[in-house]
Design brief:
- The strands form four sheets. The protein has a five-stranded mixed beta sheet with strand order 2-9-8-4-5, with no helix packed on it.
- It has helices spanning about 105-115, 125-130, 170-185, 215-230, 265-280, 285-305, 330-345, 345-375, 380-385, 395-405, 415-440, 455-475, 480-490, 515-520, 540, 565, 570-585, and strands spanning about 20, 25, 30-35, 40-45, 50-55, 60, 70-75, 80-90, 95-100, 140-145, 145-150, 165, 190, 200, 240, 260.
- The protein contains 17 helices and 16 strands.
- By secondary structure, it is of the alpha+beta class.
- The relative contact order is 0.14.
- The longest helix is centred in the middle third of the chain and has 27 residues, at about 345-375.
- Helix 3 runs parallel beside helix 5 (about 265-280), helix 5 runs parallel beside helix 7 and helix 6 crosses helix 7.
- It has a domain at about 120-415: Glycosyltransferase, CATH 1.50.10.
């Protein structure tokens, strides 16, 4: 892996003009090749060259956000398991791909195993990590930033991204994606053996074969660390990091002083929310752990009640790790109230949730008035009118909404009108995004501004949205829309790249990820979702890029460890991809 210091990189471009999901397709899936070169027909061939299907290729016209003129060929009728490739009458080919019931298993398990490789505070041993081993890291005590005389020992958790920081709001977001996948699609975390028996899916982590399923064991590693960030009064430290990011060294070589940073109301609310949700999910497996989680959630919720004001976060002077700042905390408190109501059934949390929604609606009206008058609108005003369907670390209103809607499954009695309103919000957003996907040649539910830092997270959140809308309605209406977002991640895109390390013929190999660079191993640690195309790369990254003027946003990607606004990884970019893949594996119209 190289850090490019004196080289200008062009946009990434596959040698394969026929764009397919490079991991593969389930037999009953809709299967459409998108061809970025003129052609009239295509042949689907087995790996040995035997043609099994010839189909007309239909021109779908120019695609605005990719700049490609595309042709489409539907080969959905082929359901027989095997290895295939496509070639066109114009001489273009696709990468190889699989069709089969297990075609997506390896990438699904790889995206989950990626969290294990990010574990902080423990040896990654060869029997689990293969060649991607390292010694236990960040084992020292952390000083309170505001009181260096107080130290807390808090090893564990996941490294957040390309750096070695650990952040509560980011971790809570990733955990929520994963725990929602488990709760909504438990069948995706099982596999059918040769004897026909269903067993828990495993990806070889130290806890495999223990009392917890692998997914919950992996999430517990992060939850256990997060519990250490709660201070005696219930407030939660925003993050545990060194003062500045480490250079590109292995994690055990990062010996700088660790710090607990200040409490934020966002971190405290997100902590309360995720602990409450986790208490429900872990209770069938470990009652004492579930009790520990809900007690921690109640303690932090009490802190929120005692501190109704917004307590944001920004890095103090002489500090430069990730900030994860936000302009408000009403969506975080909404999520916390919803999860506390779902976990306990106590009406006081129900009342809090409704009051937060009332305030949100008033803020939304003020926002409309400001927009109508042409006045400048600040971040705070926008945050106060939070989205009811968004599913990201900086906008968690959708987590609160789905928590409320799922509460009925645990015997709660949500307000009928409110339930219908929130269900309708997800349905409307899914229909809106479905229309965007319909107009895109690659079927990505993305607008121009969505091609930003972490665009693949946005893409996968749309996959989540389609899955949630179907789950709430009990239909498969958006199954293929969700699948299309996953296909886009795995190769059906303008660069023709699989954005998951270690998978696909044309794939990301040089992510902005310290251990992947510092380990000296040519192959990249597998399973990481790279940030993706960014139509507005940061100034730092532009010095390494040779992009033509007006390059379409879907093509604004280069595979360079130097370009963190394109190619970094994070836990909350992997987690929505896991959810979306789980939705696909759980089944639809087969």
């Amino acid at each position: 892996m190289k850090i490019y210091e004196n080289t200008k990189l062009p946009p990434m471009r596959s040698t394969y003009a026929v764009r397919i999901d490079q991991c593969g397709y389930l037999p009953g899936m809709r299967k459409i090749a998108r061809i970025a070169a003129p052609c009239k027909s295509m042949k689907l061939c087995r790996a040995n060259g035997t043609a099994v299907l010839e189909k007309e290729a239909v021109c779908t016209g120019p695609d605005e956000l990719s700049g490609d003129t595309l042709y489409a060929a539907d080969f959905s009728e082929v359901r027989e398991s095997g290895s295939y490739y496509i070639e066109t009458d114009g001489g273009e080919r696709s990468a190889g791909f699989a069709i089969g019931e297990k075609a997506l298993d390896l990438v699904f398990e790889g995206m989950m195993k990626a969290f294990y490789y990010l574990r902080c505070g423990m040896d990654l041993e060869p029997q689990y990590a293969g060649k991607f081993t390292h010694k236990a890291c960040h084992l020292g005590k952390a000083k309170l930033w505001w009181d260096h005389g107080t130290e807390i020992h808090a090893p564990g958790g996941w490294h957040d991204a390309g750096d070695y920081g650990r952040y509560v709001t980011a971790g809570a977001c990733a955990l929520q994606h994963l725990l929602l996948a488990w709760r909504m699609y438990p069948e995706a975390f099982e596999v059918t053996g040769e004897d026909g028996r269903r067993t828990g899916r495993t990806w070889n982590i130290p806890e495999s074969g223990g009392p917890l399923p692998d997914l919950l064991a992996e999430c517990k590693y992060e939850l256990d660390w997060m519990l250490k960030l709660q201070l005696p009064d219930g407030g939660v430290s925003h993050k545990e990091t060194t003062a500045f990011h480490a250079p590109f060294i292995m994690p055990e070589e990062d010996l700088e002083q660790l710090y607990f940073y200040a409490v934020s109301s966002m971190a405290t609310a997100d902590f309360a929310a995720i602990c409450a949700n986790a208490s429900v999910i872990y209770r069938p497996f470990d009652v004492s752990y579930a009790n520990l989680l809900i007690e921690a959630a109640e303690k932090s919720y009490a802190w929120l009640e005692e501190h109704p004001e917004f307590l944001g976060f920004q890095n103090p002077p002489d500090s430069g790790t990730g900030g994860y700042g936000e302009g408000g905390d009403r969506d975080n408190r909404y999520w916390a109230a919803a999860e506390m109501y779902a976990a306990t059934g106590e009406e006081r949390y129900h009342r809090d949730l409704k009051e937060l929604l009332r305030e949100r609606d008033e803020a939304a009206q003020r926002l409309k008035d400001l927009e109508a008058s042409g006045q400048e609108i600040g971040w705070e005003e926008r945050m106060a009118a939070f989205s009811l369907t968004d599913l990201g670390y900086g906008s968690v209103g959708g987590f609160g909404s789905i928590a409320y809607l799922l509460a009925e499954e645990k015997g709660r009695t949500p307000d009928a009108d409110l339930k219908e309103r929130l269900r309708g919000a997800f349905a409307a957003e899914a229909e809106y995004r479905s229309g965007i996907a319909e107009r895109c040649g690659y079927e990505a539910a993305m607008l121009r501004h969505d091609y930003c830092w972490g665009s693949n997270m946005v893409l996968m959140k749309h996959g989540m949205l389609f899955g949630i809308a179907d789950y709430l309605e009990g239909t498969d209406r958006y199954y293929e829309r969700a699948a299309a977002q996953l296909h886009c991640l795995l190769g059906v895109n303008a660069p023709g790249a699989c954005y998951v390390t270690g998978f696909g013929a044309t794939r990301v190999e040089n992510p902005h990820l310290r251990p992947a660079y510092a380990d000296g191993i040519e192959a990249c640690i597998p399973g990481y979702v790279a940030g993706g195309p960014n139509g507005r790369p940061c100034d730092h990254d532009m010095q390494f890029l040779d992009y033509p003027e007006n390059l379409p946003p879907m093509k604004c990607f280069s595979d360079s460890v130097s370009c963190f606004s394109l190619n970094e990884i994070t836990i909350y970019w992997n987690s929505p991809a896991v959810f979306t893949c789980a939705r696909i594996l759980a089944g639809g119209k087969q």
